[in-house]
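agent> fetching stored inputs for the D-ribose docking request
agent> found them:
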Amino acid sequence: MYKIKKLAFGTDHSATEIRDKVKNYLQSIGYEIEDFGFNGNTSCDYPDFALKVAKAILSKRADKGILICGTGIGMSIAANKIKGVIAATCWDKNTAKLAAQHNGASIICLGSRTATLDDICYRIKIFLETQFEERHSKRIKKIKEIEKKY
Ligand code: RB5
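agent> prediction call returned; pasting tokens
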């Protein structure tokens, strides 16, 4: 079975305390990570990192993307502006699973201020281990048609 290996990773300043811990965890369970920032200690703007991670997915430089901001909302709004990308903010393990299984999301967005480190790691793991179910592909096709038309 195909296993996702390469991950594109991006955070804003809200995740400064947890970003290395999340990366270490993902590496410890076998994933390769390319970190697109933010790597500083000051304040930054989450759309900059959403764009970099989304581009890495579109160019197939990475298989899946991880974006963390304060809530996961800003990152998903920004990433979803890029044509061809499906990003989902996931609030628990169930939404993490369904975002992959039903929505075909290629990027999971999480909130550093709305979830614990353990929850964030667990949601990412579930998201990465869940396969898309083909029966939902007609809906994804419709989303892509909307994207083209409007
Ligand atoms: C930054 O303070 C905060 O607005 C950002 O991390 C995020 O929560 C936006 O959705």
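agent> quick read of the result: The mean pLDDT is 97.
agent> awaiting further instructions
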